[in-house]
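Risk register update: the risk that structure generation would not scale has been downgraded. Supporting records follow, first protein first.
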Amino acid sequence: MHGPASSGWPLVALCAATGAYCLLRMRSTVEEQRRAAGGEALMGFGMAAMAVPTAVAVPPRGVWIAYALVFGGAALRALWAARTGAHHLHHLVGAGAMAYMAAAMAASPGHHGHGGLPPLTGTLLLYFAVYVLWSGVRLVPVAAVATAGGAPALGWGDRPELARVCRLSMAIAMLAMLFAL
């Protein structure tokens, strides 16, 4: 994940901006959207922290273990929430991928990409590649939401097309991080 600065900083910026927008989405009046936005904010900020180029900071092994524990906990929460909706399965895969990458970095920081592609990494790459294509296609036909009878316009936290863009950008970032693993 700690790749060159030329690709690392744009990835950090994208993930941090996505996390910040997800924090705004937590102000939604829809409880389910607030809950999903919280998990997505955690993913965005966690991905930003994990993507910082090694020229700036090389976290010690304990930090990677902490990341693995935090995202392992997020994966368990998503597993529990998956009982009520399929979207939580994507959160489960995302949090599991983050825990996997953090555990790989804790096991041997800075020594990745020298032994072929592990099957789990390949499976995650395939999943996120398909998710990027699927969510990109879903984003294209999103129609503007009309407000009827003077109803208030949707706030920034309630815009479904922006939530989809956030999920798409995080999936693209996840692909980049998995490739760097």
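Supporting record for the second protein:
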Amino acid sequence: MIAVGLGGESAVAHATVDAQGRLRTADLALDGLNARAGGRVGEVVAVPQLATAARLARRLGVIVSRGVVVADEDGDLHLWVRAQPEGEDVRLAVSGWREAPAWQPAPDAAATLAAGGDWHWETDASLRLTFVSLEAAAQAGLDAFALLGQPLTALFALDDGDDGALPILDALARRRPFDAQAARVRASGRKVLLSAEVRHDAAGAFAGLSGGAEMVATVEPVEPEALPESFTGGLDKALRRPLARIVANADSINAQTDGPIAPGYADYAADIASAGRHLLGLVDDLADLQAVERPGFRLAPEPIDLVDVARRAAGLLSVRAAAAQVTVERPPVEAVVPALGDFRRALQIAVNLVGNAIRYSPEGGSIGLSVTGDSDWARLVVTDRGKGIAPADQARIFGKFERIDPSEVGGNGLGLYIARRLARAMSGDLTVESTPGEGARFTLTLPAGPAPRR
């Protein structure tokens, strides 16, 4: 590898990255490393770790220094990267250049991660994230690059086991692998099980964790004899995992994380990712459809804050709203409107309503998100300024597989049907008011309740 040509760990190689992430200049060592990753001067930096450091330094406007490990030919390079903003450019100074054999998990750990991981993540010795799969960040409604350098707990909230213990703590104390660590994705509350293998540096010291996160099924259990051929009997999981991997890989290709590709291929990858997300949404909707149509389906009420539900829904869809150039007007953070309902299902309804409002809002438009309450009812209202819904269609849109305009991109005609069934299973309702050409106003109504515990 190139480290030999640098004359040891003390050598420093320099490069300059412009505002578009392109490599402007590079010393011989960095030019060679970037070239082996598929890049060249004048193109986007092809080494993801260097590109990430430059992006963070530019975004934060401060010097970013960190140790990284870069795959290079048959081994790894342990480097220290210093990224310093200089006007519109970022200057990189890379030192260390220590060669090491490529890290490989133990055979049993590799099998565990391959079998049980829907997402992949890695940390350094301080348990700060050094890698998060694009799929994990997208499903959590977060920016994968923004998570880098953050504590593992910025992505996952760890839960105690049945015995009150945290498997990850015992694993860290004993420097050994762990699995079945219960956790929740912090942004969405989605339950996952974490497993990880311990990483060691060349000297044998603890260097971090390389782990996976397996999503825990959230659909209510179904008696096998009642629905022996049910969709949720395993087909949904069998479909979800390969679809999620297709989406993650297509996103990686589109983002050109492994090096520049022809623009046409990047566009194809974006189309594949979009189609994969649509199919994933359909899988989720079909699983929910079976649940809500079960005879006697009800949801156990609990005290929730409908303002918190509304703000979380807006946060989860902030990236989509920004991409559509639509502003979501959130309720004040200090407001509280108590209600009785199932938090996860109320959030699912709110996400559906806000997502529809983003889809139908004009570019540069805004979406109103307000929450009010009285002694009897709590109401979450989502208002858009789109094309509106004709009176004859306002009842039809809550039907199963009903779409006003089947030629429109996105949607499968199940979202509002499921949302209303969920609202009514919480002793509430979901209604719409609209005037064609003036937008639509959807109202989720739930019974008023006591203030939820914080």
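DSSP finds 13 helices and 18 strands in the chain. On this basis the risk owner (M.S.) recommends closing the item.
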